[in-house]
Design goal:
The protein is α+β, with helices and mostly antiparallel strands and 108 residues long. The chain is built from five helices and four strands, in the order βαββαβααα.
Length: 108
């Protein structure tokens, strides 16, 4: 894994990152995007264009957002068909429970 999308992406889905990604490894959940940890080539282009600062390098992610690195791995383990290119897959349509739990506790 190289880069991780956090909940700052929730309900924004700007997709500037998708347009910039040279390997098509950024998949759409329901309310946020997910970077496939095995497909990312660690180029960092997605992070530089994200308007909500939702993308972090896994080695410098703030401690409070670190659970999103694990969530990305689990998201793709659960949705094994989300691989081989996001554009050919289309939206996955669901999010990792971490995002659902955060929105429930935030009252949104």
């Amino acid at each position: 894994m190289a880069y991780v999308v956090t909940d700052a992406c929730a309900d924004i889905l700007d997709q500037s990152c998708v347009e910039e990604c040279p390997v098509d490894c950024i998949y759409q959940g329901d309310r946020m995007m997910y970077i496939h940890p095995d497909e990312c080539v660690d180029c960092g282009k997605c992070m530089t264009v994200c308007p909500s600062d939702a993308i972090h390098w896994e080695h410098k992610i703030p401690v409070e957002l670190a659970p999103f690195a694990t969530a990305a791995v689990e998201f793709f383990e659960e949705h094994e068909d989300a691989s081989g290119g996001a554009s050919s897959r289309g939206p996955v349509g669901v999010d990792h429970p971490l995002l659902r739990n955060r929105s429930d506790s935030d009252g949104s």
